[in-house]
């Protein structure tokens, strides 16, 4: 292979055409190595349209009612220049997103990468509206632990970003391959250097995505996104963790595991009962017997499970 081809190969996020090949061992290896994987074409055009419509409705409602709870704004929401950029607990707020959370192909990928005891933790809509969104500074998503690499270094705490809009290289997430293996000192020094100017992508690759694709990243992978104005992008983020790690270390309490398993099972059941997905084989959630914490729990009254009610510390 010549030098130009090598540069091209290493300057791209590894990818998997999920409906053609499934998740192959080489995709798993690349994800483990690079800390990032683009899964192409997860959503059918019909499901994508439903989730896009749900995303639009949530964002339109944010603009018209300017809520504070569960919403992140660029400025205090009552200020005229404030723009919404993030909404939490979206599985509870929109049925198409709850159905998406039961997507069998997505959940089979998570079972392979996180392990059979995976539980859903965060569910959020992150977006840029035409009004603009500030830079998302270079960061790891592992800020809850002081020893992030020690705690999540097994690479099985994973964020899945499901794209509702295309993300070209001037409006996409950039990430630094293999930074998931860096120690805290190197991570902090690099993030500080890159964050010292408005947008520096030294050593990073753009995760260029199409609507309906999913970007998986290890939460230890250093990533960021540039400020944009006049460009739109909506991404549903689902984070997953191994229940056995949550059980031993947190950040959530033991109760949280059973409740989030109930949420996951509800989403799978809702999807299985929806005739639009009648041709699908529903996902069969089979964690280890000792970690089936939903058994004997009272029935759920909501799919919204606020983190702050379940922090362990
Ligand atoms: O989608 C994006 O722009 C990046 C989101 C992100 O990195 C985060 O919410 O931590």
TrEMBL record:
<dbReference type="Pfam" id="PF05721">
    <property type="entry name" value="PhyH"/>
</dbReference>
<dbReference type="GO" id="GO:0051213">
    <property type="term" value="F:dioxygenase activity"/>
</dbReference>
<keyword id="KW-0560">Oxidoreductase</keyword>
<dbReference type="InterPro" id="IPR008775">
    <property type="entry name" value="Phytyl_CoA_dOase-like"/>
</dbReference>
<protein>
    <submittedName>
        <fullName>Phytanoyl-CoA dioxygenase family protein</fullName>
    </submittedName>
</protein>
<keyword id="KW-0223">Dioxygenase</keyword>
